[in-house]
Amino acid sequence: MNAAGPQRMAKGILARLAAIEDGDILRLSFFAMLLGTASVLLIDYMALSADTPPADPANIADPVLPAVDRPEIDPGDPAFRPHETITTPEAVLTAPLAIELGPQGVLALTGTIGAGAAARFEAELERRGDYIETVALNSPGGSLDDALAIAAAIRERGYGTSVAAGAVCASSCPLILAAGTSRSVDAAASVGVHQIYAASARAVAEIGPAQAMSDAQTLTARITRHLVAMEVDPDLWIHAMETPPDKLYYFTREELERYRLADTAVN
């Protein structure tokens, strides 16, 4: 191509730009910015509306594990108190719930409570229920429905519950702890709660904010009714409702005993 061609094209573009008044240039720039902003918002919306199934707020298995180096946690704030006493590896806690019968009639539940965990727990009780005396918990939580079903089975059979030194019982796990006919929490164990209802943006968009609020209140009623039936002070769940789902409220020894979530002081 002859070099004169591009030169003539460039001169033509410059001539047209020169003919545009300053006000028109500003308006053009403004609309270009609007178009860019709209494009970003559209991309974000499409990402939120990806073809993934809506979250079932009663079956969210997205455990929050303690991390003492997270900058948003203030060690001096009791609402988000980190516990350095947890010794179980994160990979173990985030794995699907493992159910293992140990010596002295202790059935250990270790890992995340996923959908279907209650059915596996019931199956284990059918096989070895006569040997079980205590259910030992080491879980960051998970499915609320499964946690409540496990809790009901524990209370029906009259088992005790416990959280050993170095173990954690968080999110929906304390609802299982509450079901024990005796509840032992070691002084070096960690028990924490946070908001369980955390529907995805897609789920809220589909069911609407009013229904999302209704579902949250229904879940709170279920939890309160369960705690009352287990003779645990339901006031402890206020800490859960006040704590964002990406943080954990850890109970002190005094709180565990005052709310009757632990009735045996283990040193």
Outline the structure in words.
This protein is α/β, with parallel strands linked by helices and 267 residues long. The chain contains ten helices and nine strands. β3, α5 and β4 (160-163) form a beta-alpha-beta unit. The strands form two sheets. The chain has a six-stranded mixed β-sheet with strand order 1-2-3-4-6-9. A three-stranded mixed β-sheet has the order 5-7-8. It has helices at 4-19, 22-48, 90-93, 117-128, 144-157, 173-177, 201-207, 209-229, 237-242, 253-258; strands at residues 98-101, 106-110, 134-138, 160-163, 168-170, 183-186, 190-193, 249-250, 264-266. The model is unreliable at 25-62 and 66-73 (pLDDT under 50).
Q: What strand order characterises the main sheet?
A: 1-2-3-4-6-9
> Beta fraction of the residues?
5-15%
Which stretches of 5+ consecutive residues score pLDDT under 50?
25-62, 66-73
Helix content: 40-55%
Q: How many H/I helical runs?
A: 10
What is the rounded distance between the termini?
Answer: 88 Å
Radius of gyration: 27 Å
Q: How many strands?
A: 9
> SSE string, helix = H, strand = E?
HHHEEHEHEEHEEHHHEHE
User: How many structural domains does the protein architecture include?
Assistant: 2
